[in-house]
Specification:
Largest sheet: 9 strands, mixed
Distance between the termini: 35 Å
Shape: globular
Oligomer: single chain
Strand order of the largest sheet: 10-20-11-19-12-18-17-14-13
Radius of gyration: 23 Å
């Protein structure tokens, strides 16, 4: 008889410092899919759900499809939003009858109006339904703020090992393989987690160049070859969350006889993270540096890619701050593709005017004018569309994306992709779907801090990461924490990273 396995997804990276609450409508703009409808949406895709779909076929499981929910990072989930998604998954488990296993795709950094540890609460609720013996695994984002509650209720937490995150599919395949071994009686996995008194660490998980995170992953590979060690997961944490659990952690899935060794492995990994806590490959520069690079690169092959990292929608940025756009206009830079500015009102103005019309725009800067107010300019409407495309780059390949109603507005020598749904610029299709080939532009601006590199680094002649003063600023002194556990490095004097630290 086939094993009955419940499969579900709940994804959100919550920036608690954002003014924008996360609603059910925000999920619908990306995806909120109940039951079996998730299968056709993700079959053949290279994300976690696609990985689980292929595992069902490989192992002959009888799947119970609970649903899939994912929204662009923003503020806390409303009570209604959280309870609707939680209940979709939990009720599917209740109605399923006998289950043999649970496979989840989670982020690990979701915060709601009523719950600081949403994924932990979800895992706990599911564990209460399926009982203590059923294997339950979850994939996590590398930037999870993982918790003891997550580890105590899961048999394994399997985190991404790449940033940009291009291995969601592979991590789901890995998690499913462990579940199959458990179902066949060849494994009996348990999970532990250790989180030190650190707010930041592991170079935020960056893997695009040699450094700390790659070294940590190499050590994890070696540890996973040891008897009894199933999975070693490194979570770099998500800094922009005012909750007790923010920061890096290590989770180890292990066999019953290897508990002491698993704890030693987690501690060894965290010792290295602590020892190398000052290492960072981040290189934020002022906008003026990007403008100088743009002028110096006129006529050169390939675009200068300017990453507006502090307005990164992938970290909860508003996607509408304007300092970079205003600087380009003031500097009269030509042949620029700008992706993107979130401004549904201006999109509707462009739709009403029609393609070819010149309109007076008050563009962007509406969410928080203190981060760069609206740009006032004359713009020509070059293209209108529904903003839909399918990712074809290294990240989330095959996944359908919607920018909502979209207008390409030309302001001087700049083509601005103006959108109605906030998204991070991770794929060339953000531009290609709108009739813009970024490979032929002198300058390409992306609202992203790291994920863009998967698709844009191969075409860039140079990359400049700028701090435009957005909500995702690397300057943590700007963040006013009230719930964060203290003392914690680097905000406080901490000599022992394990002092007073609870461990699962």
């Amino acid at each position: 008889m086939a094993y009955r396995v419940l499969i579900a997804q709940f994804m959100h990276e919550t920036n608690t410092f954002s003014k924008l609450p996360t609603t059910l409508e925000d999920y619908r703009k990306r995806w909120l899919i109940e039951g079996e409808a998730m299968v056709p949406r993700f079959t053949g895709t290279k994300n976690e759900v696609g990985g689980y779909i292929d595992a069902v076929k490989k192992y002959g499981w009888e799947p119970v499809w609970a649903g899939a929910a994912n929204a662009t990072p923003s503020g806390k989930l409303t009570k209604e939003c959280w309870e609707t998604i939680r209940d979709m998954i939990v009720n599917a488990a209740r109605k399923a009858g006998k289950l043999d296993a649970v496979c989840l795709s989670l982020h690990g950094a979701a915060v709601t109006e009523t719950e600081d540890d949403a994924e932990g609460a979800l895992l706990e609720a599911l564990r209460g339904i399926v009982g203590p013996e059923i294997p339950m695994v979850a994939t996590l984002d590398l930037h999870a703020n993982a918790t003891l509650k997550m580890a105590r209720n899961a048999n394994a937490l399997v985190s991404y090992r790449t940033y940009p995150h291009i291995d969601g599919y592979e991590r789901a395949v890995q998690a499913a393989a462990l579940v199959q071994e458990a179902l066949e009686g060849r494994k009996k996995p348990h999970c532990l987690l250790v989180q030190p008194a650190m707010l930041e660490g592991a170079d935020h998980g960056r893997t695009t160049q040699p450094g700390l995170m790659r070294d940590l992953l190499a050590r994890a590979d070696a540890f996973e070859k040891e008897p009894g060690i199933n999975v070693v997961s490194i979570q770099a944490g998500f800094t922009w969350a005012d909750i007790p659990y923010t920061g890096p952690s290590v989770a180890v899935s292990f066999e019953p006889a290897a508990g002491a060794r698993a704890r030693a492995v987690a501690t060894a990994m965290l010792d290295e993270i602590w020892k190398r806590r000052d290492e960072s490959s981040s290189d934020y520069r002022p906008i003026s540096d990007a403008m100088a690079a743009a002028k110096a690169g006129v006529g050169k092959q390939g675009p200068l890619v300017v990453a507006d990292g502090t307005d990164n929608p992938g970290g909860g940025g508003y996607n509408d701050t304007t300092p970079v756009l205003q600087a380009l206009i003031d500097a009269k830079v030509e042949n620029v593709a700008f992706g993107t500015i979130y401004d549904p009102g201006t999109v509707q103005q462009a739709i009403k005017a029609g393609v070819g019309s010149e309109i007076d725009v008050v563009l962007g800067g509406h969410t928080d004018p203190s981060m760069g107010g609206p740009v006032k300019a004359k713009a020509v409407v070059k293209m209108l569309s529904d903003g839909s495309f399918k990712n074809d780059g290294p990240m989330n390949a095959g996944v359908e994306t919607s920018m909502g109603p979209t207008a390409v507005l030309r302001i001087g020598g700049i083509d601005v992709v103006t959108i109605s749904n906030r998204i991070q610029t991770i794929d060339l299709q953000v531009f290609l779907s709108q009739g813009i080939d970024p490979r032929t532009r002198s300058v390409v601006v992306v609202k992203s801090v790291q994920h863009f590199r998967a698709a844009y680094a191969p075409i860039a002649r140079e990359i400049v990461l700028v701090d435009s003063g957005g909500i995702c600023s690397p300057d943590i002194s700007r963040l006013k924490f009230t719930k964060l556990r203290r003392p914690i490095w680097p905000l406080d004097g901490v000599n022992d990273p394990y002092a007073g630290v609870a461990r699962a």
